[in-house]
Amino acid sequence: VQLVESGGGLVQPGGSLRLSCAASGFTFSSYAMRWYRQGLGKERELVATISTGGTITNYADSVKGRFTISRDNVVNRLYLQMNSLKFEDTAVYFCYAGPGYWGQGTQVTVSS
User: Fold this and answer.
1) Which end of the chain is more exposed for a tag (fewer CB within 10 A), N or C?
2) Rounded Cα distance, 41 and 7, in Å
């Protein structure tokens, strides 16, 4: 199993980023997927979830209305579109496929 995140970076408040997670080594379309994040000195928190077919999504209250999780089961990729970014969104973002199946994370820094 391999999960590789990309798309992080430095962005100003109010800006946007799109994270991507490339999945391999398992049947991606059979797994509900999640995005988590962990800020410096903070607990890892669940950001968003998506069902196997992509029709059911859920979000943490802190990102609802600003972030959109999606997936492409043809190319085995998970996405997180992040809009209206805030300072408090600064964190390492991880994709997750199940117990023990984590990506290495991608850093998102929101700073002026």
Assistant:
1) C
2) 22
Cβ proximity of 47 and 58 under 8 Å: no
12's CB contacts (< 8 A; 6+ apart) are 85, 110, 111, 112
Per-residue pLDDT of the chain (112 residues; tens, 9 = 90+): 999 999 999 999 999 999 999 999 999 999 999 999 999 999 999 999 999 999 999 999 999 999 999 999 999 999 999 999 999 999 999 999 999 999 999 999 999 9
CA separation for the pair 110, 83 (Å, rounded): 11
| Cα–Cα distance, 16 to 14 (Å, whole number) | 7
